Amino acid sequence: KTNLKSSYTDGILVVSIMGKLIKAMAPAEILNGKEVSAQIRARLKNQVIQLKEQVPGFTPDLAILQLKAAEEIGMKATDIKLPRTTTESEMIKFIVQLPLDSENSITLKRLINAIAPEMDVDGLTSISAGKLARGDLNDCFIPCMPKGCLELIKEAGVQIARRHAVVIGHSKIVGAPMNDLLLWNNATVTTCRPKTANLDEEVIKVTYWWLQLVGEWIKPGAIVIHCRINYVPHDKKKKKMGEKLWLMWHTTEPVPGSFRPMMVAMLIQSTVESTKCFLEKFKPGKWMNQYNNLNFKTPVPSDIDISRSCKLKPIGKLAREIGLLSEEVELYGETKAKVLLSALEHLKHQPDGKYRVVTGITPTLREKGKARLQSGWCKPFLPISTRTFLCVRQPSQGPIFGIKGGAAGGGYSQIIPMEEFNLHLTGDIHAITVANNLIAAAIDAQIFHELPQTDKALFNRLVLSVNGVRKFSDTHIRRLNRLGIEKTDPNTLTDEEINRFVRLDIDPEIKTWQRVLDTNDRFLRKIMIGQAPTKKGHIRTAQFDISVASEIMAVLALTTSLEDMRERLGKMVVASSKKGEPIRAEDLGVGGALIVLMKDAIKPNLMQTLEGTPVPFVHAGPFANIAHGNSPIILVGPEGFAVTEVGFGADIGMEKFFNIKSQYSGLHPHVVVLVDTVSALKMQGAALWSLLKSAQAPSSFQLLYDLKLPVEDKIRITAQKIDGVDDIELLPKAQHKAEVYTKQGFGNLPICIAKTHLSLSHNPEQKGIPTGFVLPICDINASIGAGFLYPLVETVKQVNGLF
């Protein structure tokens, strides 16, 4: 009756809105979509197994509703169900099931095109459609239904090339991509639209979402594919389709497996293909670095001029080059970023790399150049071709403005931009300062409120009545549990239990926790607080320390996760009661506030060297003379190097690296590098000692002491073996503290001696290797959250002055 009839002989007819494939001959031969899809899934299962073997711990993830089929081949499937009230902005970047059932107006084109092209496994974005239209079949995703049709045609053994194919329907999901797919498989394609000329009126009329066909059009040997998506009663099909086609249809009803299994199989196949492309691009341990060329000048310009003359690589680009995913990086402008801890999850199955630690001989006043050596190691020496991560501590503004002027390295070996690196960076030290001072304020507030008020008044302030009902908060419950009170109803507490619950009875004379600031200010080493008339005579002596001396900084450098940090912060002993009992941050009720303040500081900072090599972990900054002086830990795969540095000289920073950091991490360095300078050798030359030269040499690493030894013995062993003292002397205050901490159960912690970094002795004027001296220990403090005791040598300062 039409051009379609006369031209369609021994060809392929695709009806793009119905549901199965049949060879149109007598008797009708069914190609079972369920069986074919099962074969495809079996192949995909083997491919997923191979991917998991290549990248341990990695699992392809399809966040859509085809849960059972995905899980059968070893994929992870996530079922995301959103309410009908979901807005368009809330659905952006999700692969959605169409048609959408939403109460809100949705711009479907915008929603689909928000999906990243590399994740468009449904093949519906404009980018995928454009690539398919121009024949880039190996560089795009194809919609599942036309892709499944093509697979079934191939399974039928039908040669597509030089055949005439007719596609009835032109939808973006099926008809249009089916046209392109057949065309690029060398078929001659006719696509019939509702306004195609010379088609019988009955043919183009659409009822119940299926086209009415005339059976006599179908020629023997033709392929007919019905992509059915809506149910239509049999009697209506027979009436509309004509006797011949109805008989053919009827002989195959009900459809065995239908076309749906093929769609599911194609969707999963696209997900596996997407996974392969992703792993090829972001294979763990595979770097795609592009380096900057340096323009060396003579004479060498100043450090700041060199830093500003270099073209910075966009930090997002650097993150991609070293294998970090976009969702694992938070950008702080174009020059710095934070790395989310979720990166550890996708890398946790990777083997460890080599571990280098950089230390130095006992330094001069201006240090020795460890940072310069570290950044030099990250230079792109092509013959070596190793992946090197530089892990450095974040500089404190105290010494930056006090004497050093910078800590980013120097010359053509430095971290850039240097002013960003040296000042503020992403605000981590500021967060530590605020968190530390919140505890100090809470301690004084507790003392202030406890003295004049009754137990009942304090209880009413702590456990508020809302509409006549009192309830304990989670913080209250944790405190009650620590007190051994297993009650959850505030009305059931006895007077004695209320007294224990509301009163900490802090002893203001025992100075455990001090305020901090990140500026060298010698006039704040001792101050008087509480002198305002409104403070009711609560005057006492206090002091400021440098921010990086705060135990919170030490916790940051030793923590392993947000949960671990929350526990450590809550465990910090911040005061003592008049009975000598330890009072923790959790007892003040500030544990939750502390973790909120520190939630971003736990994320390491990403920067770069002059050449554009990564400095992925500028993080934490504890001083080595008054803390453990080490940055957090990260290893970079079997062929990579993690280069970290320790504060000050080997007698301070490296000793603490071995006996505190290695103690808790369980990781030991493969190489120790000792840095010295001519000026340092002139002053400390006799202190120079040999170092390990090869990462492949067997390690004889041993911890310095047994943690179970008494506190005094651990201090003595450290001082004698590292500093060469004859003996130590615990002054009365230190002796008392050692006894108190042992009684409180903290005696098994490692030791972190706080002393001058300018000499092996307690006298900064004694150079070389002094002998015949006794090391005086004037006090012992406890960093329980971080996990060590730190004895203070008589001359150490916890905040310096400006020079």
Automatic annotation (TrEMBL):
GO terms for cellular component: cytosol. Keywords: ATP-binding, Ligase, Nucleotide-binding, One-carbon metabolism. Its EC number is 6.3.4.3. Pathway: One-carbon metabolism; tetrahydrofolate interconversion. GO terms for biological process: carboxylic acid biosynthetic process; tetrahydrofolate interconversion. It is an enzyme of class 6 (ligase). GO terms for molecular function: ATP binding; formate-tetrahydrofolate ligase activity; methenyltetrahydrofolate cyclohydrolase activity; methylenetetrahydrofolate dehydrogenase (NADP+) activity. The keyword Ligase applies. The keyword Ligase applies. It holds the Pfam family FTHFS. Residues 143-276 form the Tetrahydrofolate dehydrogenase/cyclohydrolase NAD(P)-binding domain. Homodimer. In the C-terminal section; belongs to the formate--tetrahydrofolate ligase family. In the N-terminal section; belongs to the tetrahydrofolate dehydrogenase/cyclohydrolase family. This is formate--tetrahydrofolate ligase. It comes from Mandrillus leucophaeus (Drill). The lineage of its organism: Eukaryota, Metazoa, Chordata, Craniata, Vertebrata.
